[in-house]
Design a protein that fits this description.
The protein is α/β, with parallel strands linked by helices and 403 residues long. It folds into 2 domains: 272 residues, Alkaline Phosphatase, subunit A; 108 residues, Phosphopentomutase (Alpha-Beta Plaits, 2-Layer Sandwich). Helix content is 31%, strand content 19%. It has 12 helices and 16 strands. The protein has an 8-stranded mixed β-sheet, sandwiched between helices. Helix 1 crosses helix 11.
């Protein structure tokens, strides 16, 4: 078996519309493809490329990330089973818990009783209450909210309730308490919301309002046992980096790290790689999503991917023979698409260990849960029969730990 497995979720980096994209209004979405078209050939992801990223789409190459003759890793893509296209759905499914019941969404804003309850608890007026881009919320309502000491509640196409407030007017501790209260209101049907998100910001006027790294997600607690909990129960260490702790409400995690940015997250990966442990380190890098995908910024998202790729080189160099690396995404968020919401896309799957003598193609996975099933098989831990492990498909090239 591999002693340590490192999973990195490059949040929102899809690789083309999923077969059911039309159900979500996402036909034609293609996060990586549209970034490549934006940059043309002034774009390079050499480390992801040598792992096999470009080989996933040989018939429809990603501009700047073309196929290579001999990838060093295994490559393929995964399709989501869950009924949503949010981070929570994607991550839960990866860990053996597909979301089968549609969570609540609010295209016309939240019910009056929810807004009134939040306002009464906070002793502050509530502004907005409709689906909006977070940056547009600040531009249109930020100054008014600051003037009246209010908070801004808004949503998107996903099952989220987001609360924005200025850090100097609504201190972080107070904002988090308001979000915790909001969480208590929407845990059951007909109002069952996936995530409450605290969105603190700073600045003096609309032109310079900036969201800070003090975002915090208050997710619905997993409605079942996750593969992370199964690993933990078997005595393996489970480490969460980035918003992993928030997405799983802290369950199944022994050690957690909050990321200030993607690069801060890569620092945490470097730190964890220097530790001697047996188990799983699960990382989410959210800047691709929050900073660029939702803002429909292909230039920024492409640059963030190049920055990640450069740091990935250090990770590859630090890996030991009995380490396994799995890189994937939780959904798409096409910066070249309409609107500002997540996009229903297939996601890349890259698998690598220094002990592999060669790479190769993996069949398209029909559920993200194949990720967790592979983890469980590697550590010889029983699961719930959700997902199909791909460990045997790389078995001929893998390192066997004889200790």
């Amino acid at each position: 078996m591999y002693k340590r497995v490192f999973g990195i979720v490059i949040d929102s980096v899809g690789i083309g519309a999923a077969p059911d994209a039309a159900k979500y209004g996402d036909e034609g979405s293609d996060t990586l493809g549209h970034i490549g078209k934006f940059y043309q050939h002034d774009w390079a992801l050499p480390n992801l490329q040598k792992l096999g990223l470009g080989n996933i789409r040989k018939e429809q190459p990603i501009v700047g990330v073309e196929p290579v003759e001999q990838p060093i890793g295994y490559y393929g893509k995964m399709r989501e089973q869950s009924v949503g296209k949010d981070s929570m759905d994607g991550h839960w499914e990866m860990m053996g818990l597909p979301v089968k019941v549609a969570l609540s969404t609010y295209p016309n804003g939240f019910p009056k009783e929810i807004i009134d309850a939040i306002s009464d608890f906070a002793h502050r007026p509530v502004l907005v209450n409709k689906p909006m881009s977070g940056t547009e919320v600040l531009k249109e309502y930020g100054e008014e909210a600051n003037a009246v000491g209010g908070i801004m509640v808004y949503t998107s196409g996903d099952s989220v309730l987001q609360i924005a407030a200025h850090e100097e007017i609504v201190p972080l501790e107070e904002l988090y308490k308001i979000c915790e209260f909001a969480r208590s209101l929407v845990n059951d049907a007909p109002n069952m919301v996936g995530r409450i998100i605290a969105r603190p910001f700073i600045g003096t006027k609309a032109e310079n309002f900036t969201r800070t790294a003090n975002r915090h997600d208050f997710a619905l607690k997993p409605m079942g046992t996750t593969d992370m909990e199964r690993l933990q129960a078997s005595g393996r260490k489970v480490i969460g980096i980035g918003k992993i702790n928030d997405i799983f409400s802290g369950t199944g995690i022994d050690e957690g790290y909050h990321n200030e940015s993607n690069m801060d997250g890569m620092d945490h990966i470097d730190h964890v790689m220097a530790e001697d442990f047996e188990g799983f380190a699960f990382t989410n890098l959210v800047d691709f999503d929050t900073m660029y995908g939702h803002r429909r910024d292909p230039k920024g998202m492409g640059q963030a991917l190049m920055d990640f790729d450069a740091r990935l080189g250090k990770v590859l160099e630090a890996m030991q023979d009995d380490d396994l690396l799995i890189i994937t995404a939780d959904h798409g968020n096409d910066p070249g698409f309409t609107g500002s919401d997540h996009t229903r896309e297939e996601v890349p799957l890259l698998v690598y260990s220094p002990s592999m003598q060669a790479g190769g193609a993996l069949p398209t996975r029909t559920t993200f849960a194949d990720f967790g099933a592979t983890l469980l098989e590697n550590f010889n831990v029983a699961g719930a029969g959700v997902g199909t492990s791909f460990l045997s498909e790389i078995k001929e090239q893998r390192y066997v730990n004889t200790h």
